[in-house]
Structures are given as C-alpha cells and as structure tokens.
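Lab notebook, bench 4. Still working through the backlog of constructs that have no structural model yet. Next entry is a single chain of 298 residues. Request: give me the structure tokens for it.
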Amino acid sequence: MDVIIPMLVDGLAASAVIFFIAVGLTLVFSVLRVLNVAHGSFYSIGAYVAVSIGGLAASAGLNPWLSFPILLLSAALTAAALGPFIERTFIRWTYGKPEAVQILVTFALFLIFEDLQKLVFGVQSYYEDSAMQVLGTSEIGGIIYLNYQLLLIALAVLLIVALRVMLSHTRLGKLIVAVVADPEISQTLGINASRVYSAAFTIGVFLAALGGALATPTSGVAPGLGADAIVLGFAVAAIGGLGQIEGAAIAAVIVGITRVLAIYYAPAFEPVMPYLVMLAVLLVRPYGLFGAAQARRI
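Model written out:
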C-alpha cells in the first residue's frame, strides 16, 4: 500500500496532462476527420503564452492567485488568435482530401510554428510556478504531494463532464453531433457546417493550449515540447480510438500509470511505454479500445 498510493496519484496526475493533449486531438478528428499534427504546436504555444503572461504578472507583484485565471486566459487567447484563422486558411481546403495531404499540410504548419516559437521566445527554457507554489502541498499515505497535481486530476475529470454536457445539452454541441453523424444531411437541413468545423477546431486549439498552460507550473516550457506532445497525443488517441472522448480518458490513465510503473521498476523503459501499450492494444484491437471499423466512401 505504501507504494500503490504514490504510484496511483503520480499516474493519475500524469494522465491528466496527457488527457488534455489527446482530447482536443480526438475532438478535431471526430468532427473534421483531420489528423492534425500541428496540435502539438498549439500545446507549446499555450505554454509559452502562459509563462510569458504569468512572468509579467509576477514581475508586477500581482497576487499569485491571479496565476489561475492567467492560465485559462492564455489558452483562450491562443485559441482566439489561431483557431479560426488556421482552420479557414490552411485546414478547410483539406476536407475530403486523402489523409496524406492532411498530414503533410498540418506537419508543414507544425514546422512553421516550431521555428516561429524559436524566433519569438529563443531556445532557452522558461519556468513560472506561481500557481504551484500558492497551492502548497498535502500528505497522502505518508507521502508529500503537490496540491497542484491533485488539481490537475480534478480538472481532467471536470473537463470530461463539461465536454459531455456541451455535446448533449448545448446548441453548439447538438450541431457538432449532427455534423459528425452526416455532414451532407446537416447542411441540407440548414446547418452551417463550415461554422461548426471552425468552432470545433477552435475548441481543439483551446484544449491543446490549456493543456500546455496547465503543464507549465510543474514542467516549464522549452523547444521541442510540441513534438513530444503530439507524439504522445497520437499514441493516446490511437489507444482509445480516434474520435472517442471517453476512450482518450481511459487511454490517458493507462499510459500515465504504465509510465509511472516503468519509472518505479524499469526506468529505462519509461520513454517507450506509451508506444509499447499502443502496439499491444492495436495488435488486439486495430481501431483502439473504443474505436470501430467504419464504411469508407470511395
């Protein structure tokens, strides 16, 4: 029990950050049917914006509790600035194109954003931990934990509930569900599918940026963060089944706990654990844990 509780808390905390990466990716795929490689860039940009604004607030001597709305504001600013513009300018014309075209376009965006981040923020690491410091620590099972880790777990659970409520009980959610079910019939019924696509893509950017912003108090931000995030996000989305929100949540928990188990018992395998899990799952269920084969229009 002395080992199980720390592993479980560490695993769930790691799962929360992974889930924020994967859920936006899987939402965009379920609506737009686009494998968005640039999703990792939105994660790192959200982190850079959060660190920049948080650093300015700390330098100005503002109340450290303001770091929490700053994390949320950073994600919202990133989504508002990039979501609609990127979708209308670069993503929209790839709808209905082969997956190879979509991947090439979004990969090109990813490379552009990576270089732009180096030009704007340089190649040094940044760290701003006011949100983590102000929450302090708690003792669970004789082990000291950061309360910020527990907050991440709670936020991940809250996000799952919020997404389900949004999809089931809001006008935007019902429009998204209708477009996902059949875009052509939805447009025939008067639904503006282009606006739904733009809104869904912007929500995906917001979730990626929010994940990056929430991760900065514990891990900071440095060049290469976006590449690490997108590779991990794809692995989790593939394990859960592309387009499956609950699948992404369960896959994130599996990956988070297996990574922690590797850290405890076989540290050399920690970097490859997500991909070993993905390989094992896809060998048994090629469409992921919650995915299913779908008819393809030729």
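Notes after review: DSSP finds twelve helices and two strands in the chain. Residues 11 and 289 are 20 Å apart (CA to CA). Flag for follow-up if needed.
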